UniProtKB/TrEMBL annotation:
Protein source organism: Mycolicibacterium sediminis
Gene designation: oppC_1
CDD domains on file: TM_PBP2 (cd06261)
ABC transmembrane type-1 domain boundaries: 86-276
InterPro entries: BP-dependent_transpt_permease, MetI-like, MetI-like_sf, OppC_N
SUPFAM superfamilies attached to this UniProt entry: MetI-like (SSF161098)
Name of the protein this chain belongs to: Peptide ABC transporter substrate-binding protein
Family matches, as PANTHER family: OLIGOPEPTIDE TRANSPORT SYSTEM PERMEASE PROTEIN APPC (PTHR43386), PEPTIDE ABC TRANSPORTER PERMEASE PROTEIN (PTHR43386:SF25)
PROSITE patterns recorded: ABC_TM1 (PS50928)
Length: 289
């Protein structure tokens, strides 16, 4: 009995340890995520310097009380650029996933509701979109419509639509066939009213899950677009652009700009992916009840 009790207590401690580690990781990720969101909102107000201000007397300055992270090749304060770069680096992928979520939900719900030939058209359209990688589509859009974030954001949103709609369509079809939907139809309520007031709200946990899970990947795509010089242009502060701008200085022994920006991107993506995974678990568990 003592051996069994010991084995049982050991197993409990292992499970408790794993849960504690998972909760700690989520807590740390949440703190980091909230910090980035605050910086995205209030960054220009808390930045110690103007992120675009040139200072030829402090080119590649080492970290000091005046410049906590040093300066870049034109004397701009790196900390200020990282802080102010949070807004475009975080807002753009959010817009990507919100647009993809709205369009994907519309296609999935309409396909489940009407079925037949419309469902077949939507399915073929989603298959077509799957053939275009998001980053390639964004590069083509930027090449056609010019640099900036508008065209890449729209292109990445279109590329993410099938990933959202593919998950939502079978769930919407199951919801469409439930008895309460038929009862609402018999009562004479319009399809738009039923979908907006009943069907879509019941799919909300799954919709939010898809948006949150895809956010980190969209952030990497936006950073890659800026790194290639097709997003925001200098001297705008943006993390991907900072990595690209600092690349020539690496061989001269000044990796700070690229290094800090790259580490910030990695930290943000990991933090939001951890948060997204926990949010998706909670929402899906609530939806299953």
């Amino acid at each position: 009995m003592s051996a069994i009790a010991f084995a049982g207590s050991t197993r409990v401690r292992r499970v408790t340890g794993r849960l504690g580690s998972a909760n700690l990781a989520v807590t740390v990720a949440a703190v980091i995520g909230v910090l980035f969101v605050v910086l995205a909102i209030f960054g220009p107000l808390v930045a110690p310097h103007d992120p675009t201000e040139l200072d030829q007397l402090n080119i590649f300055a080492s970290p000091s009380p005046a410049h906590l992270l040093g300066t870049d090749d034109t004397g701009r304060d790196l900390l200020s650029r990282l802080i102010c770069g949070a807004r475009p680096s975080l807002v753009a992928p959010a817009v990507v996933m919100v647009l993809a979520g709205v369009v994907g939900t519309l296609l999935a719900v309409s396909a489940a509701w009407f079925g037949g030939w419309w469902d077949a058209i939507v399915a073929r359209f989603l298959d077509l979109l799957f053939g275009f990688p998001g980053l390639i589509l964004a590069i083509v859009a930027a090449a056609v419509f010019g640099s900036g974030l508008v065209a890449p954001v729209i292109a990445l949103a279109i590329a993410n639509v099938p990933y959202v709609a593919r998950i939502l369509r079978p769930a919407a079809l199951r919801e469409r066939n439930l008895p309460y939907i038929e009862a609402l139809v018999v009562q004479g309520q319009s399809p738009w009213r039923i979908c907006l007031r009943h069907l879509v709200p019941n799919l909300a946990p799954l919709i939010v899950t898809q948006i949150v899970v895809g956010y980190g990947y969209a952030m990497l795509d936006i950073a890659a677009i800026s790194f290639l010089g097709l997003g925001l242009q200098p001297p705008s502060p943006e993390w991907g652009l900072m990595v690209a701008n600092g690349k020539p200085a690496i061989v001269d022994g000044h990796p700070a700009q690229s290094l800090y920006a790259a580490l910030t991107i990695v930290l943000a993506v990991v933090a939001f992916n951890v948060i997204g995974e926990r949010v998706s678990q909670r929402l899906l568990a609530q939806g299953a009840r």
